[in-house]
Amino acid sequence: MKFKILNKQPERTIALVFEKGDDVIPILERFAKEHALTASRFSAIGALRSAELGYFDWERKDYERIPVDEQVEVLSLNGDIALDGDRPKVHAHAVLGRRGGSTIGGHVLQATVQPTLEVLLVESPGYLRKTCDRETGLALIDVDA
């Protein structure tokens, strides 16, 4: 993955270009840690060779896993980065386009790039913290933390 800082004030804007084979979520979390990102939002387009999406099953309080084992276009990938304890945590959702024009979407659990993924990330001049929601078991942004 390569990156370039496009703007430093008032909100830092960074372009990240992922390469073939990159595993998006762990690389983005590592980048966030290395660059002390504590409250960011991002959007992306590109393509993936595979992914695993999730649909949150309210009754089970867990994600129903949706494997995507084919080349897909990233029509929309949006998310945020906030602190979960002392480490940055990525939360992302995507709509992926299949050959023939059908789509599939959900929470991004895993995504492998092919050939590229172009991400525009904007860091806010503050921080967001996630706390565990007792009802769902999920780490959710807590604006009071």
UniProtKB/TrEMBL annotation:
> Which domain of life does the UniProt lineage start with?
Bacteria
- The PPC domain covers which part of the protein? 8-144
Pfam families found in the cross-reference section: PCC
Alphabetized CDD domains for the sequence:
DUF296
| UniProt-listed InterPro entries | DNA_bp_PD1 (IPR025707), PPC_dom (IPR005175)
Q: Note the PANTHER family from the entry.
A: DNA-BINDING PROTEIN, PROTEIN, PUTATIVE-RELATED
What name does the UniProt record give this protein? Answer: DUF296 domain-containing protein
Q: Record the organism.
A: Variovorax guangxiensis
